[in-house]
Design brief:
By secondary structure, the protein is mainly alpha-helical. It has helices at residues 2-24, 31-55, 58-61, 63-69, 73-88, 96-114, 121-128, 138-178, 188-213, 217-244, 254-262, 266-272, 292-309, 319-326, 330-341, 345-360, 368-374, 380-391, 395-401.
């Protein structure tokens, strides 16, 4: 049984190493994001390698290996936060202060752990073991690397995960105001990856807290087993999803256009992104120079252009595309759409697509998927969702009603 579990851990480490190296040397997509994802995967790989070496007894014979592989807890949160940040705000440079704050705990942990390599083997074993009989300052070193390390790592990881989830939520809130489609830019797959990480986190945290309260070799072994098996499952899931949806691991800078629009006018961009406690509507454009009269004139011109040139049939139409045709700021156009139609850009464009699709649905020779594609939608599911939202019925029900 032990050999089987050790083999599973080794296979997970091998899969993680292969995936991480492939990401590091990938020439496609957002290479910086790929590097962060590679770091994230490789940290799990180190954890699984440590687990395997412990299961087969190698760490017991060579304590310096344990010291070498020890410092990893403060890297998980950093890599996943930076990955989320790179995909949601790719054009926003990282401030030096942010980089310093993010990497400092990990650097300190590496320094404290790898300094053990300079000590005699017997002292290494005592510091990384129970710590019994250690005199100062070795007892303090053991306390920092054992008890305090776990608590600080939990807090560190929790804060960065909350910040990463917040970035994803803000990204999802911005999409309807900027794009007429959400397929492949909504970062749903990243949300699933975060959820997978949280499941591993749920296994890790209660076990660590329980071991701090009630130290037990047997409990520690079972906790380690379940934790590392969950890591193996996460790594294989990432690999499997990557094969089914390669775009995950070669994400182009799809969010760059979004970020460029948001930083186009600093004052107006703040209006487009109200604080979390601000109302969804009302005075979020209070500082804008666009008057209600000018907003109405702008929306009239936009509607005329949409009617005459049928821009809504472009499945990749964005707010920036339409604003460029109108020679206006994306922020002004967004404000005009929000205030004059009580819609976001996504619903504004899809209302035209639905009206056009209703004409096509009257042609019985066209299938529903053909109607969806011809109307500017990227998928049948997006068409069904938009049609039901605008007409309170499915396309099939509408076609049946007009027969």
């Amino acid at each position: 049984m032990n050999s089987l579990i050790a083999t599973i851990g080794l296979l997970g480490a091998a899969q993680g190493a292969f995936l991480g190296i492939a990401l590091l040397f990938s020439r496609f997509g957002n290479r910086q994001a790929n590097r962060y994802l590679a770091g994230y995967v490789l940290v799990f790989t180190v954890a699984l390698l440590d687990f395997y070496l412990d299961e087969v007894g190698i760490l017991a014979r060579y304590p310096w290996l344990e010291a070498l592989l020890w410092p990893r807890e403060f890297f998980y949160g950093v890599f996943i936060y930076l990955y989320c940040r790179e995909l949601t705000l790719p054009e926003l440079p990282q401030p030096r202060r942010l980089r310093f704050i993010l990497w400092l705990p990990a650097i300190l942990h590496v320094a404290a752990s790898w300094t053990l390599l300079l000590l005699p083997e017997s002292l290494q074993r005592s510091i990384m073991g129970s710590g019994d009989g250690l005199a100062a300052p070795w007892s303090a070193w053991h306390f920092l690397l054992d008890d305090m390390e776990a608590l600080l790592a939990i807090v560190h990881f929790s804060v960065l995960m909350v910040l990463g989830v917040r970035l994803l939520n803000e990204h999802r809130r911005r999409l309807p105001d900027q794009f007429s489609y959400t397929e492949k830019i909504n970062l749903d797959w990243l949300r699933y990856m975060v959820i997978g990480t949280l499941l591993v986190y749920i296994v890790w945290v209660p076990g660590e807290l329980l071991l701090l309260a009630m130290p037990s070799a047997e409990l520690g072994r079972w906790h380690s087993l379940v934790l590392h098996l969950s890591m193996v499952l996460l790594i294989y899931t990432l690999g499997w999803v990557g094969l089914r949806q390669p775009d995950i691991f070669s994400t182009h800078r799809k969010a760059s256009l979004l970020r460029a629009e948001l930083v186009e006018d600093p004052v107006e961009s703040e209006d487009l992104l109200p604080p979390d406690d601000a109302p969804e509507s009302g005075d979020k454009y209070s500082r804008s120079a666009l008057s209600p009269e000018l907003a109405q004139a702008l929306i009239d011109e936009a509607q005329f252009l949409m009617d005459q040139e049928q821009l809504y049939l472009d499945s990749k139409l964005s707010l920036a595309n339409l604003a460029e045709r109108l020679k206006v700021s994306t922020n002004y156009l967004s404000q005009a759409i929000n205030q004059c139609t009580a819609q976001n850009f996504f619903d504004f464009v899809n209302s035209y697509r639905i009206a056009y699709s209703m004409k096509l649905l009257g042609q019985q020779e066209k299938s529903v998927i053909d109607v969806a594609m011809d109307s500017g939608f990227n998928s049948k599911s997006a068409f069904y969702a938009a049609f039901k939202k605008h007409q309170n019925m499915t396309p099939g029900q509408y076609r049946q009603s007009i027969r």
